[in-house]
């Protein structure tokens, strides 16, 4: 797919997140402490919590609802919980700081139905 | 406004630390320019060995990233080495042609690895171990080559060797002395360390003088004075560091081994200061981080015009942690004339301890294998108090674990009743025994609350634990030590003590300096560190919103569907028709799905979209009710003497006053207050954190109640006469709770842990209460209504909105 310009890296606070609507899916963009930007679908595989509202620690985010920890590079939920979220590739222009969304890079799996939101 | 010009030469830990302090104390005083030779922002040099050992990523060692310099409008010349100071013109020049005028110049040029001037030392593959570049060279070499030699068997050399070993290289440490780390260890401890390291695969050559490095373009062999040779493709020189004083010397600044400074870190030339490894204070240069931070704190105060007693030098200790080997060393551990030493050696468990005493004072210690007494011994050493009569106990007595539980228990049982267990607070074994047997103290925490034992440095905790075990038997609670979360083994008290001792300034710095396992912490420790720093340094600490939970970051309660709820402040539960109309209009305008009266006598607007929050706050124009925070929540009141026929006092007025007095206060956990107008207690004050019940002619003050998970009735703190006294006691109580409880610990749990008596004691003197009250006021003085702040600040407000979709369509 073509790259989509989605704003500037300065739009996101360090260790913070912003959201972006892409083809009907809400995507959470995180800016890590080292300045890099990672993107995942904004929906915790547990009960659909908005990951963009969580606390960023290293390369992971803690879901604000029940503290599930999700690795932002792989989209995988950290142990002891299971599941994964879809990840998206983001490019940042090192000079201008412009951010581009380059499509989905990994598929997500929701938690088994009995764990998912009712 | 003409700001003074401050120039810092050296972009490392000591210098930047000083600048951070100056910015906190006097943010507008200086226009700052920084020169740094390395092309990096300030990073944590201490962490480089863990980068090599595989624990951390290179990017994780950065302490201040580029944006920090921008934010503070600091001009940074990274990659510039200052080559000349002109003290008459007050100007510095860099090798790349940059120049800067100064009113104040700080030299923080650090030190260089001492490179042995051997023939062949200029070949490829010969490096020091100092900076990121050296680390990169080592990483790269480990991919292509197999054999490495480290010259120098000191702390730095062993860390480098450990890192290279981890990278898969065959490592030999070459040492000129007969044993390792001779500056920190005696021969016995050193031999034990060597054995451990050999078991991990490290090789050693002792009494070897390196004479030449052979090879063509790249190093191939190290040649010794006895003509033996060692094959090596990578040679790391770690024989020592030398303060970098070249620049200072050229400028005519007085230089010995380091740049000579006085207690205010001033050099002999007015306006020029030096801090860190390059500075020599009272004849000593330091290479460890704690003293450098202490120096930085003194200099910053001086530059900010604040009062300081000056720097008085540091007693340092060394802790080496190379994969499972625990070594501790402090002070003068060699037996010099007039000094006596005591030793304990256990070759079965590989434990060795030695303490050195001069006169009746402890002057040095070496510990191997079991370093749990390190901090305790170190604190005794720093205090310089007499240890007469306790020498053997210092050597043997602290650690209840020691060698096998049985012997430790026997040792404790056999100990004389009048022996001192807690040296800091002078608590004897008898006092502790008494607390366990007659006062029902079955945990270390309750013994501490009762006797103060282990309440200061905490070093005697294992011993107290042992005594609790001994006398309480099966009733003993609280097992082995656990840290505040999985990222550390340190407890709340230890962390807070280190924060105040080293004047730590940020969550990130705390985690770096105190050796967190996870460089960026987790959702448990980050908010707690943020709280402790704010509590300790209310004037200077900048709250980190990224270390707060969602609710406290967005100043609203997140709901299960990602919407939020809005609870405005309604003081004492008293509202008015016009306020109600306004709330109703806002609720209608924003289609709020549910409007509910809360248990705390306020109104909750539920199901609000995040994007709507700032606008709703603006239109409500009411203060935040903090219904989302670890903070003062509500002050519930009954009608009281204003209308009620039973009311004895104006409970509404009292409640409104308390809420206005303490609103916005950050606390370890949420705090709820209530005021009842008579003993019928309709405001349910006796299940609140601080409950006030009016009686005829006075007020009863109750504390430590809880109506939630763990229902607990309050305990009576005291009875006072006037409203002013109620406010004073409430403020003092809240501040004492803020300063002593663990983060996320409600008053009910805290009081159960420390005991009401200890709280009463802390508050019973008027002077203590006034001091506590002044501190709570100081904390409150910095806080503004968060809703108004967000409404007015675009940078904060943007976080409530998604990135615009429109940007995508066209670009």
Notes on the structure:
- Chain A has strands at residues 4-8, 16-22, 25-31, 37-41, 55-57, 60-62, 69-71, 87-92, 98-106.
- Chain A is globular, with a radius of gyration of 14 Å.
- Chain A has no helices and nine strands.
- In chain A, a hairpin with a 2-residue loop joins strand 2 (16-22) and strand 3.
- Chain A is an all-beta fold and 118 residues long.
- The termini of chain A are far apart.
- Helices cover 0% and strands 41% of the residues of chain A.
- Chain A has a single domain (4-106), classed as 3-layer Sandwich (Rieske Iron-sulfur Protein), CATH 2.102.10.
- With 811 residues, chain B is an alpha/beta fold.
- Among the domains of chain B are: 4-110 and 243-303, FAD/NAD(P)-binding domain (3-Layer(bba) Sandwich); 126-239, 3-Layer(bba) Sandwich (FAD/NAD(P)-binding domain), CATH 3.50.50; 492-548, no CATH class; 552-620, Alpha-Beta Complex (Sulfite Reductase Hemoprotein, domain 2); 632-781, Sulfite Reductase Hemoprotein, domain 1 (2-Layer Sandwich), CATH 3.30.413.
- Chain B contains 28 helices and 36 strands.
- In chain B, strands 3-2-1-7-19 form a five-stranded parallel β-sheet, with helices on one face. In chain B, strands 9-16-10-11-12 form a five-stranded parallel β-sheet, covered by helices on one side.
- In chain B, helix 12 packs across helix 14 (461-472), helix 21 (651-662) packs parallel to helix 22 and helix 22 (723-740) packs across helix 25 (766-781).
- In chain B, 48% of the residues are buried.
- Classes of the chains: A mainly beta (118), B alpha/beta (811).
- Chain A binds chain B through residues 4-7, 11, 13-16, 18-22, 26, 29, 33-35, 47-50, 53-58, 62, 64-65, 67, 69, 101, 117, and chain B through 59-60, 62, 65, 67, 508, 518-523, 526-527, 545-551, 553-554, 558, 560-562, 798-799, 802-805, 807-808, 811.
- Chain B: Residues 629-766 form the Nitrite/sulphite reductase 4Fe-4S domain.
């Amino acid at each position: 797919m073509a790259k989509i310009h989605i704003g500037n890296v300065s739009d996101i606070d360090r260790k913070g997140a912003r959201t972006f609507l892409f083809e009907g899916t809400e995507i959470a963009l995180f800016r890590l402490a080292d300045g890099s930007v990672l993107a995942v679908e904004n929906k915790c595989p547990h009960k659909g919590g908005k990951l963009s509202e969580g606390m960023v620690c290293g390369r992971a985010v803690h879901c604000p609802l029940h503290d599930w920890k999700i690795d932002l590079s792989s989209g995988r939920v950290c142990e002891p919980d299971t599941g994964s979220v879809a990840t998206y590739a983001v490019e940042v222009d090192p000079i201008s700081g412009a951010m581009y969304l380059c499509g989905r890079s990994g598929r997500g799996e929701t938690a088994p139905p009995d764990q998912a939101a009712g | 406004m003409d700001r003074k010009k401050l120039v810092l030469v050296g972009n490392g830990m000591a210098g930047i630390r000083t600048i951070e302090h100056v910015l906190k104390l006097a943010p507008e005083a200086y226009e700052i320019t920084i020169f740094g030779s390395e092309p990096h922002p300030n990073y944590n040099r201490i962490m480089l060995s863990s980068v090599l050992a595989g624990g951390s990523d290179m990017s994780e060692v950065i302490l201040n990233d580029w944006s920090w310099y921008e934010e503070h409008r600091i001009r940074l010349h990274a990659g510039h080495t200052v080559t000349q100071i002109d003290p008459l013109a007050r100007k510095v020049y860099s090798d790349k042609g940059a120049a800067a005028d100064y009113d104040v110049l700080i030299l923080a040029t650090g030190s260089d690895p001492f490179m042995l001037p051997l023939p062949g030392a200029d070949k490829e593959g010969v490096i020091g171990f100092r900076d990121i570049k050296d680390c990169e060279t080592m990483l790269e070499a480990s991919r292509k080559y197999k054999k490495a030699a480290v010259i120098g068997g000191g702390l730095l050399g062993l860390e480098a060797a450990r890192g290279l070993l981890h990278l898969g290289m065959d490592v030999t440490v070459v040492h000129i002395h007969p044993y390792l780390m001779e500056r920190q260890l005696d021969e016995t401890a050193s031999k034990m360390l060597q054995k451990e390291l050999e078991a991990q695969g490290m090789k050693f050559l002792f009494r070897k003088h390196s004479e030449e490095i052979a090879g063509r373009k790249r190093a191939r062999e190290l040649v010794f004075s006895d003509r033996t040779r060692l094959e090596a493709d990578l040679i790391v020189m770690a024989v020592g560091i030398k303060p970098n004083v070249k620049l200072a010397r050229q400028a005519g600044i007085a230089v010995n081994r380091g740049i000579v400074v006085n207690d205010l870190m001033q050099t002999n030339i007015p306006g020029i200061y030096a801090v860190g490894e390059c500075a020599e204070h009272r004849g000593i240069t330091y290479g460890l981080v704690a003293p450098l931070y202490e120096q930085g704190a003194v200099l910053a105060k001086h530059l900010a015009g604040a009062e300081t007693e000056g720097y008085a030098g540091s007693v340092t200790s060394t802790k080496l942690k190379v994969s499972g080997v625990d070594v501790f060393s402090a002070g003068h551990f060699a037996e010099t004339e007039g000094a006596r030493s005591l030793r304990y050696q256990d070759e079965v468990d590989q434990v060795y301890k030695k303490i050195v005493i001069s006169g009746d004072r402890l002057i040095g210690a070496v510990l191997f294998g079991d370093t749990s007494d390190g901090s305790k011994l170190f604190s005794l050493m720093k205090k310089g108090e007499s240890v007469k009569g306790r020498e053997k106990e210092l050597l043997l007595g602290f650690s209840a674990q020691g060698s096998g539980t049985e012997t430790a228990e026997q040792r404790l049982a056999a100990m004389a009743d009048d022996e001192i267990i807690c040296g800091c607070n002078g608590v004897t074994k008898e006092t502790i025994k008494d607390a366990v047997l007659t006062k029902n103290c079955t945990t270390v925490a309750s013994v501490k609350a009762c006797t103060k034992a282990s309440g200061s440095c905490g070093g005697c905790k294992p011993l107290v634990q042992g005594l609790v075990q001994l006398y309480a038997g099966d009733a003993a609670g609280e097992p082995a030590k656990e840290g505040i979360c999985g990222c550390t083994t340190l407890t709340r008290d230890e962390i807070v003590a280190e924060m105040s001792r080293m004047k730590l300034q940020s969550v990130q710095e705390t985690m770096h300096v105190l050796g967190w396992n996870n460089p960026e912490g987790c959702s448990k420790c980050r908010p707690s560190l943020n709280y402790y720093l704010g509590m300790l340094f209310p004037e200077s600490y900048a709250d980190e919103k990224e270390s707060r939970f969602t609710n406290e970051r967005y100043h609203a309660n997140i709901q299960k569907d990602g919407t939020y709820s809005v609870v405005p402040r309604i003081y004492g539960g008293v509202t008015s028709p016009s306020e109600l109309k306004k709330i109703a209009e806002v609720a209608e305008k924003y289609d709020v799905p549910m409007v509910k009266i809360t248990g705390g006598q306020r109104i909750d607007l539920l199901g609000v979209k995040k994007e709507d929050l700032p606008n709703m706050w603006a239109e409500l124009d009411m203060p935040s009710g903090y219904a989302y925070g670890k903070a003062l929540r509500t002050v519930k009141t009954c009608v009281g003497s204003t209308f009620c026929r039973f009311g004895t006092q104006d409970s509404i007025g009292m409640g409104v006053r308390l809420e206005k007095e303490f609103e916005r206060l950050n606390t370890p956990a949420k705090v709820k207050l209530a005021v009842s107008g008579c003993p019928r207690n309709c405001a349910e004050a006796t299940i609140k954190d601080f409950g006030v019940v009016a009686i005829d002619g006075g007020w009863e003050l109750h504390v430590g109640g809880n109506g939630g998970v763990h229902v607990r009735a309050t305990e009576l703190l005291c009875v006072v006469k006037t409203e002013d006294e109620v406010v004073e006691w409430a403020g003092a109580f809240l501040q004492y709770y803020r300063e002593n409880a663990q983060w996320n610990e409600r008053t009910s749990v805290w009081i159960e842990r420390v005991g009401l008596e200890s709280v009463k004691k802390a508050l019973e003197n008027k002077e203590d209460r006034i001091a506590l009250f002044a501190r709570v006021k100081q904390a409150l003085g910095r806080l503004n209504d968060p809703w108004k702040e967000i409404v007015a600040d675009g940078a904060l407000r943007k976080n409530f909105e998604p990135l615009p979709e429109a940007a995508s369509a066209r670009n």
